[in-house]
From TrEMBL:
Protein name in UniProt: Glucosylceramidase
Organism annotation: Zophobas morio
Coiled-coil spans in chain: none
InterPro entries referenced in this protein's UniProt entry, alphabetically: GH (IPR017853), GH30_C (IPR033452), Glyco_hydro_30 (IPR001139), Glyco_hydro_30_TIM-barrel (IPR033453)
Family as reported in the entry's similarity comment: Belongs to the glycosyl hydrolase 30 family.
Catalyzed reaction equations: a beta-D-glucosylceramide + H2O = an N-acyl-sphingoid base + D-glucose; an N-acyl-1-beta-D-glucosyl-15-methylhexadecasphing-4-enine + H2O = an N-acyl-15-methylhexadecasphing-4-enine + D-glucose; a beta-D-glucosyl-(1<->1')-N-acylsphing-4-enine + H2O = an N-acylsphing-4-enine + D-glucose
Domain Glycosyl hydrolase family 30 TIM-barrel, first and last residues per copy: 127-471
Any one Gene Ontology BP term: glucosylceramide catabolic process
Lineage: Eukaryota, Metazoa, Ecdysozoa, Arthropoda, Hexapoda
Protein origin, superkingdom: Eukaryota
Pathway: Lipid metabolism; sphingolipid metabolism; Sphingolipid metabolism
Gene Ontology molecular function, alphabetical: glucosylceramidase activity; hexosyltransferase activity; signaling receptor binding
Every Glycosyl hydrolase family 30 beta sandwich domain range: 474-536
Signal peptide: 1-22
């Protein structure tokens, strides 16, 4: 395949570079400054503050157990001309709320930290934010007692939490499982899927939590989307769950039917599925990274399968409106992989969106999304997987502010380049960053310690929350001065209730005074602390 060699070349380049990728660990805050602004009793507005713990070297987590967990209530609309500023920072503030006033005067003075917000300039509509219901997420939750499990679920899905609304669910096992399985592990080929059945993991670790999430979310449905890792061995050219294996041509239709069967079973069990991706990381079959369970797809074969099998199977099913997302792989494959899949209009017409992953993002300037968006304006781009600690499988680093910053920076950069949402990988992992079938330990926003019965909310949880909590589905990104002064990143939205949201990431080691300049409101002066993530909210009426 012409593209396979190009793919191999790219992957070889990455293979060398992956080893030198390290995290930004500069200027660790040595002082373990205690958080004085927030005490452990409930604040006036019902906000239960974070019980902060310094875990060493200035790294801080919020500690929760079956009795207590911090909350973040929905902000009430302030009186006209006021704004609300939420700050979380490396020093230990978490969703710390302050308010201030817009000033009609002093508009003429200019400062290098002015952010001009322009709601007349409108870009993409946001779909949302979330994480993945992996086997490992459910397994880890179940090591805690029921009350602690409920507090984790509330932290992610309730109005007192960060209000996730787009969540991924693996179709079968992934590397974040404790065994390898598919929904049809028949010893002999089973072309008509007579032995198709969901696994015990679906009933123990996924479906009950997904249903609980649906109940906790008061404002509309959760958009669940499914992704496959590996196919049954009998469908694959290499007869292995991992490695250089593809779907045998004679089973193209069976593999499409397998997706439809998954949709049917989940609906039957009370979990409606919004979408599917065509395959998680199809490039891994060529790279063979760490024995990752996968199915390989060249762009040309993907195009054929979409056109002949998957697209028609979904349209003919009971769920013809299921959203189909292509790629579901590293962004450095943009735009060529999608160009090649879309060359055939009959494949392109079945695809609603393009799914990208954050790994190796440094190799992909966000202009790649701009190019893709310009070429295919009616296909949304959604970030469907991200996690820290994947380099050399370093796993969990408790309290790493830098990993939180990594999330915010990627989110802001992506959303400033037409991406419509951002979905994290495992929502809950153990102290090591597992369990995983192939020892590729990674990090997650919530870590459980089954020995103490505690769970820890990492800075990544708050960074994601500064976006997910305040930028609901159907918000529209609006014009704003972007990426000011190197280590400050900014983006802005108008919410469906017409409120304005400005998110500011300050990676500088110094406090800065910034100003929001809005032609209707005037000027708001903001104290933005060093190493902080901030969300500003205001309304015109
Ligand atoms: C699952 O498969 C992987 C290869 O993808 C292998 O390395 C691992 O040992 C298997 N795990 C179990 C529990 O069988
Ligand atoms: C594409 O499909 C053809 C026909 O089934 C097969 O020979 C080829 O190996 C496939 N290539 C890839 C990379 O999947
Ligand atoms: C991407 O597109 C946005 C919106 O059109 C634009 O502001 C930005 O400068 C572009 N970025 C790149 C890197 O091309």
């Amino acid at each position: 395949m012409q593209h396979t060699s190009l793919l191999l070349l790219v992957l070889l380049l990455i293979g060398n570079s992956i080893l030198v990728l390290t995290e930004d660990k500069t200027s660790e805050d040595k002082k373990s400054s205690e958080n004085k602004q927030q005490s452990s009793k409930e604040l006036e507005d019902g906000h239960k503050p974070c019980k902060i713990r310094d875990v060493g070297e200035g790294r801080k987590v919020c500690v929760c157990n079956s009795e207590y967990c911090d909350t973040i209530p929905r902000p009430k609309k302030p009186s006209k001309s006021k704004f609300i500023l939420y700050t979380s920072n490396k020093q230990g503030l978490r969703f710390h709320k302050t308010t201030g006033q817009f000033n009609k005067k002093h508009r003429s003075k200019k400062s290098e930290y002015d952010i001009h917000v322009n709601p007349d300039q409108k870009f993409q509509k946001v779909i949302g934010w979330g994480g993945a219901f992996t086997d490992s997420t459910g397994i880890n939750m179940k090591t805690l007692d029921k009350k602690a499990q409920d507090l984790i679920m509330k932290s992610y899905f309730s109005e007192e939490g960060i209000e996730y609304n787009v969540c991924r669910v693996p179709i079968g096992s992934t590397d974040f499982s404790v065994r390898n399985y598919t929904y049809d592990d028949s010893k002999t080929p089973d072309k008509n899927l007579e032995h198709f059945a969901l696994a015990p993991e679906d009933f123990d670790y996924k479906i009950p939590f997904m249903k609980q999430a649906m109940e906790l979310r008061k404002n509309g449905p959760i958009k669940f989307f499914g992704s496959t890792w590996t196919a049954p061995l009998w469908m694959k050219t290499n007869n292995k769950y991992y490695g250089n294996g593809f779907i045998k041509k004679e089973f193209y239709q069976t593999w499409a039917d397998y997706f439809v069967r998954f949709l049917e079973e989940y609906y039957k069990n009370g979990v409606p599925i919004w979408g599917i991706t065509t395959q998680n990381e199809p490039s891994m079959a060529v790279l063979g990274l760490k024995d990752l369970p996968t199915v390989g797809w060249s762009s040309t074969n993907m195009s054929i399968w979409l056109r002949e099998n998957l697209g028609p199977a979904i349209k003919k099913s009971k769920y013809p409106n299921t959203v189909i997302m292509a790629l579901d792989d590293q962004k450095l494959f943009l735009p060529w992989y999608i160009n090649s899949v879309f060359e055939d209009q009959n494949a392109k017409k079945y695809v609603d969106g393009i799914a990208i992953h954050w790994y190796l993002g440094v190799f992909t300037p966000c202009s790649a999304f701009n190019i893709t968006h310009t070429k295919y304006p009616d296909k949304f781009i959604l970030s469907t997987e991200a996690c820290s600690g994947f380099q050399t499988s370093s796993g969990v680093l408790l309290g790493s502010w830098e990993r939180g910053e990594g999330y915010s920076k990627d989110i802001i950069e992506n959303l400033n380049c037409w991406v419509v949402g951002w979905v994290d990988w495992n929502m809950v992992l153990d102290m090591k960053g597992g369990p995983t079938t192939i020892a590729n330990f990674v990090d997650a926003p919530i870590i459980v310690d089954k020995k103490s019965g505690e769970f820890y909310k990492q800075p990544m949880y708050y960074h994601l929350g500064h976006h997910s909590k305040f930028v609901p589905e159907n918000s529209v990104r609006i014009g704003v001065t972007q990426r000011i002064c190197g280590r400050i990143w900014v983006t802005a939205y108008q919410k469906p209730d017409r409120g304005i949201v400005v998110v500011i990431l300050n990676k500088k080691d110094e406090d800065v005074t910034m100003r929001i300049v809005d032609k209707t409101m005037g000027v708001a002066t903001l104290k933005i602390s060093k190493r902080s993530i901030n969300t500003v909210l205001y309304w015109y009426d």
